[in-house]
Write a structure and sequence with these properties.
Two copies of one chain form a homodimer. The first copy, chain A, is mostly helical. Chain A has one domain: Tetracycline Repressor, domain 2. Chain A contains eight helices and no strands. The first copy, chain A, binds a DNA duplex through loops.
Chain lengths: 199, 199
Amino acid sequence: MALEKLDTGIRREQIVEAALGLIAAHGVGRISVAALARRVGIVPSALYRHFKNKEEILQAAVQLVRRRVGENLKEVCEATPNALERLDQLLRRVMKMVRELQAMPRIVFSEGMSSGHPERKAQAYAMLKEILGEIENIMRQGQARGEIRSDLDARALAVMFWGMVPAAVILWHMSDGRFDVTRQAERTWELYKEGIRAR
Amino acid sequence: MALEKLDTGIRREQIVEAALGLIAAHGVGRISVAALARRVGIVPSALYRHFKNKEEILQAAVQLVRRRVGENLKEVCEATPNALERLDQLLRRVMKMVRELQAMPRIVFSEGMSSGHPERKAQAYAMLKEILGEIENIMRQGQARGEIRSDLDARALAVMFWGMVPAAVILWHMSDGRFDVTRQAERTWELYKEGIRAR
DNA sequence: CTCCTATGTGAACATAGGTTCACAATATAT
DNA sequence: ATATATTGTGAACCTATGTTCACATAGGAG
């Protein structure tokens, strides 16, 4: 209707943004090009001026999420040298992203579990490995600095730390928001922190 | 082809079993009545002799999983009174179910995240609450018996314990089995156990 | 201002998937 | 053995959804 013509760069951004919104609301598997186009304000066939097909749009969305997660990780590591503080901030950030950029957990879970296109799965896995690797680094550095018990396996610590997130997210989603993620995360984090702190 | 006629009770079981297999292999969202019927050895339309529609089949599958999980929980609790041993066995059992009855994690995750039909979601949530409640009970009893630190919140302990499972499962799935769940679970569990043991 | 290319539109097409229906064949009870 | 109810079959259907295409139009380059 409007028939406003925008540069393909801008439109691509709009489309990916819209895709993220839909993923957040309904999950990766339930995106339709119709809904996507409606959200952007154009007609379905117009999407194909900017992307080869639906799959390409989804991959772009996954990549965008991955980039944002990466930026967050870096910022946290530059904020403070103290490992426990880093972890504390990281958890807060992730929880915030989970709340605001809900597309992230949906992508990690859907792609990881529902085995969509292999490319997307690979992307999601790469993102996850990035996150886990960074957490593991924080752990090692914390151990080297004498802030975290050195008798514990850094990798296991990292997996366990990260594990608090999916647990909270699943409970949150399944309970339709009735489950208080933030509070739960705080408590679990306290527990965890006391357990790993050097003594 | 075969045209063997079986009692609707038997066929229902076969169908649900086939559904569980497909869920395990491809996730809840990707089940087609065609594939389901093929697996059972009948034609798609024949399914409708035994179930009202696809949704009813999926719900039956979810319920079956829920029942099996419940049975497992009971058996674990009757096996030993010691809380730490119970948790140990519970983790092993769950990991075994995750490997053998892969439909379980897929249902919990897919239903929880991808918001399928509200009824299924409710079922999955009920199952999850059952599990969490049971774990919480074990924690409390362990605290009462002086086996688990009493200064920790039983609910947070339960969520954290349970959280080890989704974490491991996600990593396993995303890595296409390259990630060694069992070993990871062992390590994390050791970590966790040491953290909560009364001293 | 005038082209020409990039973008948007509507309609049509293709496919996949769930469901229904008329009919056939088997099991079971009498 | 026959009749009746139950189960299975194939075809058709309906809808949703991804995609293509011919055509229209906006907007910048010349």
